[in-house]
């Protein structure tokens, strides 16, 4: 009897171990469905062995210990049958976390074991047997507890699609709001123009509006008796060579000057910014890959957008607030000139080397909306100036002045897509053209030719004549009449620019560089006489008037320096 008890005591540890191993491995059962009889036999033997060991354990183990062991085994069996041993999350029969096994037989979630094998030295996380991705087997077992996540995955896909649709709707809504804002601005502008027209009609009917050019001329004549003095305030070196054009923004107090890059690491051409409050050079902004031919700030707008035309076959919008290029528009040919539409600031114009003028809409970045002068002269467009509509002016029409080397046109604006050309009687080799905003006079500069041996700067006024036989039909023919002609030197090789300048007391001046004398000549428009010559070390290629509420300055640009003069 003692021997039997001893035998029982000796067998107890092994019997407990057998029960524990059975409880661990019994969480996954594999049935051989190829031989039903053999499977049934094996199942019966297994069942009998389990009953024998369970009975033997029951006889030798207290009831309390048996209950604790059973609960532990049941919990362990449930955990191993439902959860991945790496992340302890339920595995699934579908998706990235579906249940798989390695060659050693241990079960895992697929995404977890793939990550493990990528970073653990290719070993099973439970038994450290060598393993690799090729050993992964997908398990199709009926007794394995898996979570069906197909509905959840479909719901997540639907959620992603819904979020994408929502983002698209929000983007469309933002675009619609922007268009609505632009339409509101357009409506307010038209409303303001209509109110001004009604006021002008009332004044004309009451006889209170009297336009007298003779009175204006006599007033200018009285002011012209006082001589204007120019004092050199500062001379600033911009670069070693290559400056070409400049533009002034009164809202930003910035003078923008084109120049080549001074860094060999960042070649190209850009803009040098000069603050007009203290006339100090501030920053350089890289814009184009080739020479910049023209600059233009948006009319009466403080958004800091600068329009540039270059022979690299592009026109670009650059923000001088952020010093970055905002938008690039392809022109197909080198661009020689550019300007904004003063009435409709969303439009701008670019003059090309072959004489074509492209009309762009900033809301359409793909292509120009209109092409002008496609069948006309193929001479390059050296100057573009927009004349805004003004109901109170003698010449009230709105349109685009197009200056080519051999011809000058006024394109009367009929609508957004319709322009009517009028050839102006200006003969000569044009180099520059500008418009004075208040008087609407045009200043055109010409090189010497056979009929005129000197450089000519012609100030003229535009005029519209109704050529229709029917007085109820308006059919305007636009022309121009010279008011003053200012003669310069006998040579001009560069496409130098001229400009209007006004003093604080209202005197209107004409300023232009003179190659023959390396100077800037200033004329009084009332008398036609030269006021002064401002000497320079090299030819002046561009001039610009800088006027504030308290002071007036004149900027004269050469290929290296800019001279700032104070007018008094």
Please tell me about this protein's structure.
- This protein is an alpha+beta fold and 568 residues long.
- The protein has six helices and 31 strands.
- The chain has a four-stranded antiparallel β-sheet with strand order 4-31-30-29, with no helix packed on it.
- It is elongated.
- The N terminus is likely disordered.
Widest sheet, order of strands = 4-31-30-29
Helical residues, percent: 25-40%
What's the rounded overall pLDDT mean? 81
How far from one another are the termini? Answer: 134 Å
Helix count? 6
Structural class comes to: alpha+beta
**Biggest sheet architecture:** 4 strands, antiparallel
| CA radius of gyration | 44 Å
Architecture blueprint of SSEs:
Layout: H1 2-25, H2 36-60, H3 63-82, E1 99-101, E2 107-109, H4 110-119, E3 137-138, H5 150-206, H6 213-223, E4 230-237, E5 246-249, E6 254-260, E7 269-275, E8 280-288, E9 292-297, E10 305-310, E11 314-319, E12 324-330, E13 335-340, E14 347-352, E15 357-361, E16 370-372, E17 381-387, E18 399-404, E19 408-413, E20 419-423, E21 430-435, E22 441-446, E23 456-466, E24 476-487, E25 498-502, E26 508-514, E27 519-524, E28 530-535, E29 542-547, E30 552-557, E31 561-567
Antiparallel strand pairs: 1-2, 1-3, 4-31, 5-6, 6-7, 7-8, 9-10, 10-11, 11-12, 13-14, 14-15, 15-16, 17-18, 18-19, 19-20, 21-22, 22-23, 23-24, 25-26, 26-27, 27-28, 29-30, 30-31
List keywords for this structure.
elongated; four-stranded antiparallel sheet; disordered N terminus; alpha+beta; 568 residues; 31 strands
């Amino acid at each position: 009897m003692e021997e039997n008890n001893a035998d029982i005591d000796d067998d107890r540890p092994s019997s407990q171990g057998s029960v524990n191993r059975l409880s661990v491995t019994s969480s996954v059962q594999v049935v051989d469905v190829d031989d039903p009889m053999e499977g049934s036999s094996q199942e019966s033997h297994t069942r009998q062995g389990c009953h024998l060991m369970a009975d033997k354990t029951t006889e030798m183990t207290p009831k309390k210990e048996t209950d604790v062991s059973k609960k532990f085994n049941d919990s362990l069996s449930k955990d191993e049958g439902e959860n991945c041993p790496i992340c302890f999350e339920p595995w699934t029969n579908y998706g990235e976390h579906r249940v798989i096994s390695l060659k050693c037989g241990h079960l895992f979630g697929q995404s977890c074991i793939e990550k493990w094998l990528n970073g653990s030295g290719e070993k099973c996380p439970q038994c450290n047997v060598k393993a690799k991705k090729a050993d992964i087997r997908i398990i199709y077992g009926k007794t394995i507890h898996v979570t069906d996540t197909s509905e959840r995955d479909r719901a997540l896909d639907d959620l992603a699609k819904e979020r994408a649709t929502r983002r698209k709707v929000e983007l469309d809504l933002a675009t619609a709001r922007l268009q609505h804002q632009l339409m509101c601005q357009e409506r307010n502008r038209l409303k303001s123009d209509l109110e001004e027209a009604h006021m002008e009609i009332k004044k004309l009917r009451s006889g209170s509006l009297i336009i007298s050019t003779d009175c204006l001329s006599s007033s200018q004549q009285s002011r012209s008796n006082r001589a204007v003095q120019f004092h050199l305030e500062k001379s600033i070196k911009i670069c070693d060579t290559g400056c070409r054009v400049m533009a002034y923004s009164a809202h930003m107090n910035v003078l923008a000057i084109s120049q080549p890059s001074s860094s060999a690491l960042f070649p190209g051409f850009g803009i040098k910014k000069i603050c007009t409050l203290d006339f100090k050079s501030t920053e350089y902004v890289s814009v184009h890959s080739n020479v910049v031919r023209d600059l233009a700030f948006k009319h009466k707008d403080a958004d800091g957008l600068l329009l540039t035309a270059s022979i690299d076959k592009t026109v670009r919008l650059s923000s001088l607030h952020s010093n970055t290029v905002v938008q690039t528009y392809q022109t197909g040919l080198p661009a020689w000139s550019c300007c904004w539409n003063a009435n409709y600031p969303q439009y701008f114009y670019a003059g090309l080397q072959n004489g074509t003028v492209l009309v762009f809409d900033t809301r359409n970045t793909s292509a120009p909306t209109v092409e002008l002068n496609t069948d006309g002269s193929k001479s390059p467009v050296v100057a573009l100036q927009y004349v805004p509509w003004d109901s109170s002016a003698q010449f009230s029409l709105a349109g685009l002045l197009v200056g080519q080397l051999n011809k000058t046109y006024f394109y009367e604006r009929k609508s957004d897509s319709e322009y009517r050309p009028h050839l102006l009687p200006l003969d000569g080799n044009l180099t520059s053209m500008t418009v004075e905003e208040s008087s609407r006079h045009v200043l055109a500069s010409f090189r010497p030719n056979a009929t005129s041996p000197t450089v000519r700067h012609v100030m003229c006024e535009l005029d519209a004549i109704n050529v229709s036989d029917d007085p109820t039909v308006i059919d305007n023919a636009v022309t121009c009449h010279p008011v003053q002609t200012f003669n310069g030197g006998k040579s001009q090789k560069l496409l130098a620019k001229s400009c209007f300048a006004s003093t604080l007391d209202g005197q209107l001046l004409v300023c232009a560089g003179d190659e023959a004398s390396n100077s800037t000549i200033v004329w009084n428009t009332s008398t036609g006489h030269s006021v002064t010559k401002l000497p320079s070390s090299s030819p002046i290629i561009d001039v610009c008037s800088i006027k504030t509420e308290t002071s007036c300055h004149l900027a004269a640009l050469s290929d290296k320096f800019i001279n700032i003069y104070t007018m008094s």
